[in-house]
Design a protein that fits this description.
It is a single chain. By secondary structure, the protein is mostly beta strands. Among the domains are: 94 residues, 3-Layer(bab) Sandwich (Phage tail protein beta-alpha-beta fold); 327 residues, Beta Barrel (Maltoporin, Chain A). It is built from six helices and 29 strands. The N terminus is likely disordered.
């Protein structure tokens, strides 16, 4: 697709020029802005242990104390608007302590040898700083991420995570020109992203061979993206996404119901402390027109109240005749930071897709296999514009709360409510006729609603036991959903792909084959301990879940109830060599409740899995 882009930052003019700004310029400007990011501090003189942890929470840096003796030094006061390096230099001046960055977002505090003290008596002669730290919810600078919130839910460096995790950053997605979640996953190993070809109505990636329209392998901001058992499948608008974290392998210990292949966690754009404004206009093939707006910044002088508004409008034809794509999307968010220990982010989004493009399935003969009658044209539509319809609406509201109780304990709570509806009417292929060019068709109509909530309450503790540094996590998550579906089915007129005639699928008689409502409740308790000792990291965890599924069949006025429970666990070990190589081993189990019912109307049994994995990681730097 040929595209013309226009980006403007700062003042937005009505005369949007589509010539002078390239994607590379925009990426460079974003990196420069992040590198210059500063933070507001008002820390009194206190122990270095407490002060550095405060700085880590504010900047997003992971702080590690590697020395065995207790560091009882009192740090200098840190006040004002400073960068991460300035803060550390100010704090440690004269304490006999120094710091070094072991990777882009992890800082180590250590006792300075006498030879390393400067004349001013505080900081080492040489310090290597690779990059500014990224907050747990904020953006990742450049193409390479050093940390992940998905692997352990604790903002752990990827090199310390004994599991395969990939992170697709905003800059990578922009460089690819990705317009959907599955397009962003094109260059990720272990995923078959676009299993439905050019169809863009749903994102249905298969992870390590596992996936289906009803399987839940997509998460948003760490919470499961609820879906129904039919066509009630929400879709994530990638313009509102900061990055995607792709966690491979069974991961039920932290996330509950997950496919054996793993999960894909999209991280939403959040408010920023520095003003940033952008407008994008895009025009492409098939008359594709798109307008996007992204505006963020502080609402008051002390930057305790931040905002962001992301909006998009799109309209396009497709490569298939008589099909269109349309979308309206708006996502406002607000962050309140009353003090250095507390933050509250409110997220909202509304999305309406009155057109969903082409979602048909063509016969194998004439498309994949040759046919004596000739090949089916690439723009052929096996549906009928007189009957076909698609309309999807989805609204979400939620929040992310964090509070540091003291130097050891922190609490987090993530919550989201979803209201979703999908109406579909389609004529599709059922078989190919004996002549090789006449296609028999069926007609299907569905009306579905999906409402539910997801919640994840976490309590985190950071402490030492001798030489062992622990990051312990205790959590309780809860999911509840109500999915209702009405489905009608019947015959439709056939079509000849050599001479297609549209507008004939009128006055169709359909029979009601499904009228049901399914209610799901799932509650899970989990615990995890991440132990660092020198270059070793051990991660172990356990989880217990209970699931109740109630299905009401309104066609025959019956009800069935199914109760399930599951125990999941994981154990992983990784070692970081000084040369930047980190081999790891892990064992993990998972389960997955499956929406929908079998032929007898009973709920499906959950899917279970176990995995043993041996792998290795290589530390990579971006220059």
């Amino acid at each position: 697709m040929k595209q013309k882009r226009a980006h403007q930052a700062g003042y937005v003019f009505a005369t949007l020029l589509l010539t002078s700004f390239s994607g590379a310029h925009c990426a460079a400007a974003q990196v420069e802005q992040q590198a210059a990011q500063q933070f507001s501090f008002n820390l009194p003189a206190k122990s270095v242990t407490q002060a550095v942890n405060d700085i880590g929470r504010i900047t997003g840096l992971s702080v590690v104390f590697r020395e065995e003796p207790e560091m009882a030094a009192i740090g200098k006061p840190v006040r004002g608007t400073l960068g991460a390096e300035q803060e550390l230099v100010t704090l440690l001046n004269g304490t006999g302590l120094g710091y070094r960055f072991s990777n882009a977002t992890t800082v180590q505090i250590y006792v300075l040898p006498p030879s390393a003290m400067t004349a001013s008596g505080g900081t080492p002669d040489t310090m290597v700083v690779q990059a500014q730290g990224n907050s747990r919810l904020g953006p990742v600078v450049g193409y390479l991420a050093s940390n992940s919130t998905s692997g352990t839910k604790t903002n752990t460096p990827l090199m310390r995570t004994p599991q395969s995790v990939s992170v697709i950053t905003r800059e990578q997605a922009d460089t690819q020109g990705a317009q959907s979640l599955v397009q962003e996953l094109r260059y990720s190993s272990g995923v078959a992203a676009e299993v439905r070809g050019s169809a863009s109505r749903y994102d249905l990636p298969y992870v390590r061979g596992f996936g289906s329209p009803t399987d839940s392998n997509q998460y948003l901001d760490g919470l499961r993206l609820l879906r129904g058992g039919g066509y009630a499948i929400p879709q994530i608008e990638t313009y509102g996404i900061e990055r995607i974290e792709f966690l491979k392998g069974p991961s039920s210990t932290l996330y509950g119901g997950v496919t054996p292949g793993g999960l894909i966690n999209a991280i939403s754009k959040v408010p920023t402390s520095e003003p940033q404004h952008a407008v994008e206009m895009l025009y492409g093939s098939h008359n594709r027109m798109q307008l996007c707006v992204d505006s963020a910044g502080p609402l008051n002088d002390d930057r305790s109240l931040l905002y962001r508004v992301v909006a998009l409008g799109r309209k396009s034809d497709t490569q298939v005749v008589n099909t269109k794509e349309e979308r309206v999307y708006v996502a406002p968010s607000l962050t309140w930071i009353p003090d250095t220990d507390t933050s509250f982010t409110l997220n909202m989004s509304y999305q309406h897709d009155p057109e969903g493009g082409y979602y048909g399935v063509l016969p194998t003969v004439g498309s994949l296999w040759p046919s004596p009658a000739g090949q089916i044209p690439r723009n052929f539509n096996d549906g009928d514009s007189a009957f076909d319809q698609f309309d999807r609406k989805q609204s979400m509201v939620g929040y992310q709360f964090e509070h540091r109780i003291n130097d050891t304990w922190s609490v987090r709570h993530n919550f989201r409510y979803l209201d979703h509806s999908t109406v579909t009417k389609s004529v599709g292929t059922s078989s190919m006729g004996a002549d090789g060019h006449t296609i028999s068709r069926y007609a299907l109509g569905t009306d579905e609603t999906l409402r539910g909530l997801t919640s994840d309450l976490q309590l985190q503790a950071e402490f030492d036991t001798g030489r062992l540094y622990h990051t312990a996590l205790f959590g309780f998550d809860y999911q509840q959903s109500d999915w209702a579906q009405i489905r009608d089915y019947g015959g439709a007129p056939s079509i000849d792909f050599l001479n297609p005639i549209y507008g004939v699928a009128t006055n169709l008689t359909l029979a009601r084959i499904t009228n049901q409502k399914q209610h799901n409740n799932q509650a899970g308790f989990y615990a995890q301990d991440q132990i660092d000792i020198d270059l070793w990291t051990l991660v172990d965890g356990m989880r217990y879940d209970t699931i109740r599924t109630r299905t009401d069949n309104r066609l025959n006025d019956t009800r069935s109830v199914q109760d399930d429970e599951a125990v999941s666990g994981k154990l992983g070990l990784i070692y970081n060599f000084d040369m930047g190589i980190a081999p790891y081993v892990s064992y993990s189990t998972s389960f997955l409740p499956v929406n929908g019912t079998d032929a007898s109307g009973s709920a499906f049994k959950p899917t279970t899995a176990k995995q043993r994995e041996v792998g290795g990681k290589i530390l990579t730097y971006a220059f």
